[in-house]
Amino acid sequence: MARLVMQPYKSCCSGLAKTSFLGYFSSSSSLVQASRRRNCLQQSLKSIHTSPKYTSSEVSCRRIHPLPFSSYSRIKQASRRLICSVATQPQPSQAEESKMDTPKEIFLKDYKMPNYYFDTVDLTFSLGEEHTIVSSKITVYPRIEGDSSPLVLEGEDLKLVSIKIDGKELKKEVYHLDSRHLTLSSAPSARFTLEIVTEIYPQKNTSLEGLYKSSGNFCTQCEAEGFRKITFYQDRPDIMAKYTCRVEGDKTLYPVLLSNGNLIEQGDLEGGKHYALWEDPHKKPCYLFALVAGQLQSRDDSFITRSGRNVSLRIWTPAEDLPKTVHAMYSLKAAMKWDEDVFGLEYDLDLFNIVAVPDFNMGAMENKSLNIFNSKLVLASPETASDADYAAILGVIGHEYFHNWTGNRVTCRDWFQLSLKEGLTVFRDQEFSSDMGSRSVKRIEDVSRLRNYQFPQDAGPIAHPVRPHSYIKMDNFYTGVLLSLS
Ligand SMILES: [Zn+2]
């Protein structure tokens, strides 16, 4: 995931940035060159840290171009928000909840393997204007055969319609429901099928987590813990399953129905509706689930991987934005080629979709084969975009694509490992941008961003280690270090 970062202030290096852009489209990137450059990177890093001459020139640049007051004020405001979210003072709505429902502090040392794993997850979404019905059919098996520990599922802002085990409706006595959990006190001790139907209200979901509707489109954001706003689930990254997703909706209002994986079936339904059935053959944690439905059009292209797989590439936007996606498509193809050349990693499905929507909480999100972006990080036209805009699009398209391996196929055990997937993927996108443009300029920009955004936070009250020992609200992990790097 990448956050939408504050516009970096124009440094004294903007002249250099322009020079770098001239070399933008004429890069070569062999493995040998890349590793030689990595050595150079380490050297230049060292020199940045050790050379007083370099440091003093940077300092003098910053004196000439101080960080604008508005940026400081935004950092302050963000800090204040974060302090509020970890404060011990309960919010009014939380105060009404019982002690059982108050969010608990999660400790790394308390990690336990799940009692149950999920094998396959078949989801059906019936999208509606008043509410949406989500049906899930999950194949569940206990970690230890014969164990019948309670199965605890997370769920927030959900209306439970029905719950069945192996086709039989459960009586209310055998499960417990509170505002954050659905607990099955005695789940079967061998493999079983769990079917849950929930009703959700995407039109009223202003958190922009889970499934929400905005500007006429349905859209999801599930990292880190948004999937629990879609259905009851073990919402943790070490629960990895194979998913299918059937999306049903009005054909006129939502002509495009997207989810993860390959499209295996689509057709018309009664009452002016239609459906699309998606299948993702790779196991994934639920934070990588995605669904988009709306009136979108696509720029289509293709990429042939080095093993000969023909991958369809589509970038979806509202019709009026389509002409501004040329650079994004160029960036995607460059990232796919670079990951093969430098890391030996090739794409593993037949289709890769990117959706750009204006109302997206994060800068961008690496959902498996359905990346969702804030429009700002996809759209560019020569009339209005600056060199920095083009560079940002290249870097973020690359970042989210590279997550396909570092984060998606190889994922986190728990959220304490967030910095592993983000740190490695940021390193990969920095290498990509360096190979595609000027390595020196890229490094100066990155170090400058660290100094302007990371250092002030690390000197303030919300400083925390890259891997804290505990958290109350997972969202706080995404500040500071990740914000400054992404
Ligand atoms: Zn990321």
From TrEMBL:
<dbReference type="InterPro" id="IPR001930">
    <property type="entry name" value="Peptidase_M1"/>
</dbReference>
<keyword id="KW-0482">Metalloprotease</keyword>
<dbReference type="InterPro" id="IPR027268">
    <property type="entry name" value="Peptidase_M4/M1_CTD_sf"/>
</dbReference>
<dbReference type="InterPro" id="IPR012779">
    <property type="entry name" value="Peptidase_M1_pepN"/>
</dbReference>
<dbReference type="Pfam" id="PF01433">
    <property type="entry name" value="Peptidase_M1"/>
</dbReference>
<comment type="similarity">
    <text>Belongs to the peptidase M1 family.</text>
</comment>
<keyword id="KW-0862">Zinc</keyword>
<dbReference type="GO" id="GO:0004177">
    <property type="term" value="F:aminopeptidase activity"/>
</dbReference>
<feature type="domain" description="Peptidase M1 membrane alanine aminopeptidase">
    <location>
        <begin position="329"/>
        <end position="479"/>
    </location>
</feature>
<dbReference type="GO" id="GO:0006508">
    <property type="term" value="P:proteolysis"/>
</dbReference>
<dbReference type="Pfam" id="PF17900">
    <property type="entry name" value="Peptidase_M1_N"/>
</dbReference>
<dbReference type="InterPro" id="IPR014782">
    <property type="entry name" value="Peptidase_M1_dom"/>
</dbReference>
<keyword id="KW-0378">Hydrolase</keyword>
<dbReference type="InterPro" id="IPR042097">
    <property type="entry name" value="Aminopeptidase_N-like_N_sf"/>
</dbReference>
<protein>
    <recommendedName>
        <fullName>Peptidase M1 family protein</fullName>
    </recommendedName>
</protein>
<dbReference type="GO" id="GO:0008270">
    <property type="term" value="F:zinc ion binding"/>
</dbReference>
<dbReference type="GO" id="GO:0009507">
    <property type="term" value="C:chloroplast"/>
</dbReference>
<feature type="domain" description="Aminopeptidase N-like N-terminal">
    <location>
        <begin position="122"/>
        <end position="288"/>
    </location>
</feature>
<keyword id="KW-0479">Metal-binding</keyword>
<keyword id="KW-0645">Protease</keyword>
<dbReference type="GO" id="GO:0008237">
    <property type="term" value="F:metallopeptidase activity"/>
</dbReference>
<keyword id="KW-0031">Aminopeptidase</keyword>
<dbReference type="InterPro" id="IPR045357">
    <property type="entry name" value="Aminopeptidase_N-like_N"/>
</dbReference>
